[in-house]
């Protein structure tokens, strides 16, 4: 039954995408983040829904009346340069067969990310995108939060197999990053039942992130919670949600959880932590000796034999920063960081421009909450190898689009930022007449 439902929904939306290509963007994000086909048990698990969606969306866009224009911003230019660089480094990868397979995944993600920038052209479409992303992870957040409460936090919350968020650590980070987007939707909602549902989802999703028992997710939650409160429009309400979530965590999580979290302070005695540090040294040594790094999937046993302080301690790198460094070299790491920094700067511009304008307050809210989500990724990602994960690039594009829609008039005509100037022009015109 699940296979039939998922397949029917996918093909139904694909039919809509032929006429309205931006529905293909929604479908791509739903498939990428919720992975509904991974929850089925039969034929739907083997159908390449994402590839079909990408082909249909791109074809429909090319033959549609949609504007064929890319919003050329520092972020989109850097994304293209980054894609070019990782393609170049793949030609020199230590393990070409593995590297080209990973390159194919990254290429698809970046192409659809850039296509999103061309198809989401107004606030309605942008809000639709945020809803799809937020609810895709909130599905696991709500389910995982209830699961954590029922079982007293004894078991780990995990994601669907063979996805970016299959493990408890990866799912924990994704859920933490989703809480601010839910908060944005909560701020914009006018229906009381929807607001109540989103408020409950925020708490459950935050609890589910803790229920993954990921130490990185806990650090991300602390960092993000502080910024969420600072960035929030209503600090009192946000404080209540944070305190409620913290209270639930304290009441539900078992002693074993707190013992595991305490190992953050005694990482020298943790074999997993020391394995990561060994991999980080390996990444640095690879980047120091090879300008292109080792290419995708470089953290294999032979690499550790040549570049690790402890050659026998083979461990996944578990850090977005050292993953980018080791696989793409120092140039790749610099490009990776620049993408995030320029997006943050764009978010700050949006907030300064729009926060005092009632008609564009939504844009300031979205930029602020997206920045909070980025802090979650930057903090938790320091301990997870998710530098090619779709989610942070979606956040970058959300900020690009918010700027294009709210600060500019869609694709490049700047809105009046000072109404008084317009009044002065009108007065001068009247005087001349």
Describe the structure.
By secondary structure, the chain is mostly helical. It has three domains: 66 residues, no CATH class; 210 residues, no CATH class; 130 residues, no CATH class. It contains 17 helices and two strands. It has a two-stranded antiparallel ribbon with strand order 1-2. Helix 2 packs antiparallel against helix 3, helix 6 packs across helix 7 and helix 14 runs antiparallel to helix 15. The protein is globular.
Care to give the gist of this entry?
With 433 residues, the chain is an all-alpha fold. The chain is built from 17 helices and two strands. β1 and β2 form a beta hairpin.
Notable characteristics:
433 residues; mainly alpha; 3 domains; two-stranded antiparallel sheet; 1% strand
């Amino acid at each position: 039954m699940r296979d039939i439902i998922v397949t029917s929904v996918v093909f139904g939306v694909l039919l809509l995408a032929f006429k309205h290509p931006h529905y293909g963007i929604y479908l791509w994000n739903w498939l990428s983040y919720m992975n509904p086909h991974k929850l089925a048990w039969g034929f739907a698990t083997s159908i390449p829904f994402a590839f079909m969606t990408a082909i249909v969306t791109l074809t429909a866009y090319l033959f549609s009346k949609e504007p064929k224009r890319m919003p050329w911003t520092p972020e989109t230019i850097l994304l293209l340069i980054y894609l070019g660089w990782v393609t170049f480094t793949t030609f020199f990868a230590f393990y070409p067969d593995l590297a080209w397979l990973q390159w194919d995944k990254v290429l698809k993600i970046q192409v659809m990310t850039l296509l999103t920038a061309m198809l989401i052209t107004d606030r309605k479409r942008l809000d639709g995108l945020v809803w799809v992303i937020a609810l895709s992870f909130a599905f696991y957040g709500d389910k995982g939060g209830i699961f954590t409460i029922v079982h007293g936090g004894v078991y780990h919350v995990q994601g669907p197999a063979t996805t970016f968020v299959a493990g408890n650590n990866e799912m924990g980070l994704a859920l933490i990053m989703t809480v601010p987007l839910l908060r944005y939707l909560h701020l914009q909602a006018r229906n009381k039942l929807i607001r109540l549902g989103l408020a409950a989802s925020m708490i459950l999703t935050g609890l589910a992130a803790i229920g993954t028992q990921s130490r990185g997710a806990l650090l991300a939650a602390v960092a993000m919670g502080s910024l969420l409160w600072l960035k929030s429009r209503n600090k009192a309400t946000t404080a209540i949600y944070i305190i409620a979530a913290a209270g639930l965590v304290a009441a539900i999580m078992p002693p074993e959880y707190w013992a595991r979290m305490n190992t953050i302070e005694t990482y020298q005695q943790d074999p997993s932590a020391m394995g990561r540090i060994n991999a980080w040294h390996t990444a640095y040594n690879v980047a120091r000796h090879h300008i292109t790094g080792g290419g995708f999937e470089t953290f294999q046993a032979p690499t550790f034999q040549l570049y690790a302080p402890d050659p026998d301690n083979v461990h996944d790198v578990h850090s977005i920063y050292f993953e980018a460094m080791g696989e793409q070299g120092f140039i790749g790491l610099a490009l990776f960081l620049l993408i995030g920094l320029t997006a943050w700067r764009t978010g700050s511009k949006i907030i300064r421009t729009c926060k005092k304008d009632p008609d564009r307050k939504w844009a300031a809210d979205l930029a602020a909450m997206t920045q909070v989500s980025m802090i979650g990724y930057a903090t938790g990602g320091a301990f997870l190898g998710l530098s090619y994960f779709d989610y942070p690039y979606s956040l970058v594009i959300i900020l690009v689009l918010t700027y294009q829609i709210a600060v500019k008039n869609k694709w490049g005509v700047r809105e009046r930022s000072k109404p008084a100037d317009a009044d002065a022009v009108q007065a001068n015109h009247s005087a001349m007449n």
